[in-house]
Amino acid sequence: MGQGHEAECGCVRLGKCKWFNVAKGWGFLTPNDGGQEVFVHQSVIQMSGFRSLGEQEEVEFECQRTARGLEATRVSGKQGDDCHGSTYRPRINRRTRRMRCYNCGEFANHIASECGLGPQPKRCHRCRSEDHLHADCPHRNVVTSNASSSSSSSSSSSSSLGASGI
């Protein structure tokens, strides 16, 4: 067992990438000599740009034993060349939340200062009419008329009770 431990650590070994999570930046290597799987983090991969490993990509690596097991300290392609990497790239989370542009009124991925239409006339954001603004929209009053009448009647009855109770 002592010889196997020496073969696992400190020397250049050949292997293949078992799997690599491109979004998280880590995966595992399977040594060609049949030893224990080796953890690999993207920071030890030798390649330019976005560092990753393709599935079943042949690599040479050095590793060391840590408290968690074997961990690669250097990973490169065959004969020390750069790794090829995965063809998959993680999605970049760019402003995916859609907002209403106050200039064009659309739910889009831009705000009024970045709107490509240029300055637009002011209009209601609810019905898009240029005759009035949102606060004065006739469609707004139709929707909320039932809720406002019940809340106003309950507030007036509670205020009259409060006045008579004093």
TrEMBL record:
Quote the PROSITE patterns the UniProt record gives.
Answer: CSD_2
Query: Which InterPro entries does the record cross-reference, listed alphabetically?
Result: CSD, CSP_DNA-bd, Lin-28_RNA-binding, NA-bd_OB-fold, Znf_CCHC, Znf_CCHC_sf
Superkingdom is: Eukaryota
Which UniProt key words apply to this protein?
A: Cytoplasm
Q: Which GO terms describe its cellular component?
A: cytoplasmic stress granule; cytosol; nucleus
UniProt-recorded Gene Ontology molecular function terms: mRNA 3'-UTR binding; zinc ion binding
Provide the protein name: CSD domain-containing protein
